[in-house]
Amino acid sequence: MMFVFYNILLLILSPIIALYILYRIFISGKSRKSWRHQLGGVKLPNEIADKKKIWIHAVSVGESVAASSVVSELKRDIPEVAVVMSTTTEKGQEMAHKSVKDSDGFFYYPFDLLPSVSRSLSKICPVVFASTDTEIWPNFLHIARRRGVKTAMINGTVSDKTMAGSKKIGWLYRWAMSNFDLLCMQSQADADRAVSLGADESKVVITGNCKADEAPQPLMQPEREELLSLYKIGAENLVFVAGSTNPGEEPHIIESYALARKTHPSLRLIVAPRQIERRKEIYTLVKASGLECGWRSDPSTITGAEDVVILDTFGELARIYAIADVTFVGGSLIPRGCHSILQPIAQRKPVFFGPYTFKAKDLVAQAKAAGVGFEIKNGMELGLQISRMLDEPEVLRQIEARCEDMIRSNRGASRRTADELIKLYKAAISAGSGNRSG
Predict the structure, then answer these.
(1) 125 — alpha (psi -120 to 50), left (phi > 0) or beta?
(2) 3-class state of residue 272 by DSSP
């Protein structure tokens, strides 16, 4: 009944959906590379066509990184199985190609329309499908299950936003969640929320946060010195790294930096915007504040005399945290929900964030409890807190040790997740499921 109702609703909305797809292809360009796959036109490498497959889906950049270790663990234990990976966004696809080294194939996830879903499933023919986080598309899950595909959620978390949305369309969540055969959740709170949305409690397990397994090891001293040299940062300098900043956050960062520099004049700032194409916008803000600015993509602008460097290159942020004394993670001073705080913590650095942390609520709570994460409300409070922390080198050393303990306690989630997926795969094979195209 829910299946019929949902697809009648999609049919009614089809003119709007068609216009939206055309807009993404021809105007915004966000689906220019992906639309053929999203309509079901997937093509995998010929060498894996006849292999049994596990399909891992990651929504975007962060989820692609989280899935990398799970894919590696699966390939280590069941190398005869092809593990293929889809993403929703083009940036996620780019990151998947860079970070998920053991995947046997990459493609884009289909729109949740019957023809698109049916074509994709017929071409991939997975034994198991696993989606990261809370990416829930009802048609896909329903049709996959009808075809005998075992479905799972991995690295699962349920945000406050999802819970609020479920109050309006609870029927849709109950139907979608009932189609999962396995839900690997990050925490007990996430597990409880999944059950409240309609998941079968007997199918829910807590495996932890897979992103912890992808957090890099602390850089060795020679690597740190190389980065310090690259950024022309001297022994006398202190460094503040603001990572994954979004529109509306940089004014707070610049304000906090100017305030902290009054008591620590040697402080340098590195800003890494979430959208690197915003370089000129941030440069204008910095210059308007009377500060000198360079950017990473043009080494000639980095002389050591500038106050601020904009990190406008892709894939370097995780390492840059290693040369910081204090850090801030964006998406948290605006209602985005906070980006990854694990990267600075993995480099043993204190991390500040704003009040909007609903996408990372469990990690944020853990970081606060461990004494390595600190919530601030605005730029002025951030500047004051940074100044105080930089006044106490012994506190910074204590935070280093606490960061190491927190990361160590979180590692192993990918191994636990892979174990659960392998059990699901073997159960499917024993029952004769998978590789069905009808």
Answers:
(1) left
(2) strand
Kindly state whether residues 347 and 202 are assigned to the same domain.
Answer: no
- Position 437 scores a pLDDT of 42
Query: Which candidate, 203, 157, 138, places its Cα nearest to that of 420?
Result: 203
Given this model, what pLDDT does residue 436 score?
A: 47
- Collect the ranges in the chain with pLDDT lower than 70: 134, 433-438
Q: What is the pLDDT of residue 352?
A: 98
* CB of 195 closer than 8 Å to CB of 396: no
Longest dimension (CA), the chain: 69
| pLDDT at residue 394 in the model | 96
Fill in the DSSP letter of residue 136: -
Structural domain boundaries, residue 275? 221-409
pLDDT digits (tens, 9 = 90+) for 376-390: 999 999 999 999 999
Q: In the block, which residue shows the tokens 């979180």?
A: 410
Instruction: Please tell me the distance from the alpha carbon of residue 12 to that of residue 377, in angstroms, as a whole number.
Output: 44
Residues 278 and 236 in one domain: yes
Q: Is residue 437 part of a domain?
A: no
Which distant-in-sequence residues (6+ apart) come within 8 Å of 220 by Cβ? none
Integer Cα distance of 138 and 119 in angstroms: 16
Q: Based on the domain organization, do 381 and 337 belong to the same domain?
A: yes
Total domains, the chain: 2
